[in-house]
Queue: 2 jobs
Job 1
Amino acid sequence: MARVDELVTTIVESGFSSLQVIADFDRTLTRVWYNGKECETCHGIMDNSSLMPAFFREDSNKLLAKYYPIEIDPKMSEEEKIPYMIEWYEQIHELIVKCKVSQESLEEMVSSSNARLRDGTEELLSKLHSAEVPVLVFSAGMGDILEQVLRHFNVYTDNVKVVSNFFKYNDKGVMIGFKGDLVHIFNKNENAIHSSDYFDKLKGRNNVILMGDSLGDIKMAMGVPQPSNVLKIGFLNDKVEERLESYMDNFDIVLIDDQTMGVAGSIVGLMK
Ligand code: TMP
């Protein structure tokens, strides 16, 4: 506790010019539920969209039912889980390609979905934008959908960089595959963007507020170049009893079934 106090004090006192933010997307920037109904993730938006063929919904839900319990199984190690996660992504990606998704349809998919940002996310991101704090959104979801969600809620500002799985399109705007290396739940580390000019923006920003909902998210700050003060905020949304101990061991602050950005918002609210 004293260590967390010290970390928060250092981050607050160093101010915006030393800060960068790294956040997972699904169930971290977005809500888990709203009015008693589960909110859609990037994948959920496509799974439930009427613009997607029925076979996609059926097959992707079967894959979700098989692989999601493995993702959150507290008894399996990360090494044991990785081959299953790769298997999951490969199958789902193949399935999406079969659907011949048009780039044009994404806006409607997102606007008709029930995906929502956590309460206070717009305010937090707006403050970070005004203070020119770089924000990395690091997601094992689908970049094109995620970007559309950020646009939909007017928070995709020029200080925000997204690292995720992006669609490749043909010249008719039909999705034909994915670009670059696969980002899955357990290979998130900033090495994935070492070649990017985003790192130039991070010079002198030794303090990091990192937010995630999976133990895999802790790695998101691994590529930060300078020795850093990393405050890790973990959202524990599911299998709370079984996973609380490991979340407490790995995150500095653990928020149970919190649907807000209250904690990060109050820290940033103290900063100059
Ligand atoms: P995140 O990195 O933004 O949290 O996104 C990854 C989440 O997406 C992770 O919890 C697994 C989930 N997921 C689905 O819900 N459906 C899928 O088909 C796949 C491949 C992943």
Job 2
Amino acid sequence: SMGDSAEDAVRGTNDSAVESRCSAVNLGYFKDEFVKFFTRRTERRPPIINRGSYARFMGFDIFINKFLEAGDMKKQIVVLGAGSDTKYFNLKKENKQPYKFFEIDFPQITFKKIQTIKRSKQISGLIGDFEINIGHTELYGQDYYIISEDLKNFTTKIVPKLEEHGFDKNLPTMFLSECVMIYMDPEHSDAIVQWISENVPTSLIMAYEQILPNDAFGQMMIKNLKARNIELKGIDAYPDLEDQKNRYLSRGWDQAFAININYFFNSHIDPSEYHRQMLIEIFDEIEEWKLIAQHYCFAWAFNMKNEDYKFIFDD
Ligand code: SAM
């Protein structure tokens, strides 16, 4: 099992994620007025990192909006390893929040998030009425919930907690894993994938994570993380796009897709937006960018067991 320092290192990846997001937001890559509350480090990151944060943001933004706009029934979003994710606040501000929005992370991370929420009227006001548990690691609002638990205890501890706070397996539900399952033992992340497939008849899961561990760049990426005591535990189990797809198909999901970030830019970002974003920073590391972008993917899968809600997944 993971030593404490290895777990701390995994939790530390949340700091770099939020610092990078803040840098990209400050430069105008995308809008997120809440990210600044979650970090004091607002240094400018290199263009390649900003571009990566932009891709990551856009991918989730596009798919979340599609999911929320398809039909006006109650829907749920569950964010695995949410860290300092601000999606709920941005959706709520635009009155686009789903019926229920759940976030899960380690107690050390949720404690800090709740502290930040309590300190900021702008955020707490947005949430509306909420209660906080004794340890200040969980928050229960009207449509927003923060649950503190190790994701390896998904079926035994997290599912009962979700249900206690109104999670309904029969509602269309989107599960997000933004650089999270890759840090878990595949045995534990796959238990989550399997549980959703078997228990949430109308669901969508979307993951953003590293692939291609075996080429020179992949080896370097893994070595650099190892130096920070961070292990990509899932990368050997799902090393390429085909394996990423099969991860879901072999566990009963009806459709699955996996694309790298180069392909994502070509297929999902329209030309005017592509150019706007290209002009933000002088960018002369095109070859390096293409190589990095090849090593990150979006993978998503649909569970369409309920005929009535199948239309949600129509293109
Ligand atoms: N999803 C957020 C984002 O993209 O900004 C945070 C990403 S950060 C790279 C990874 C997050 O996953 C951290 O907040 C970490 O604590 C959480 N995490 C990783 N393994 C976990 C586990 N076994 N249980 C709960 N949270 C976990």
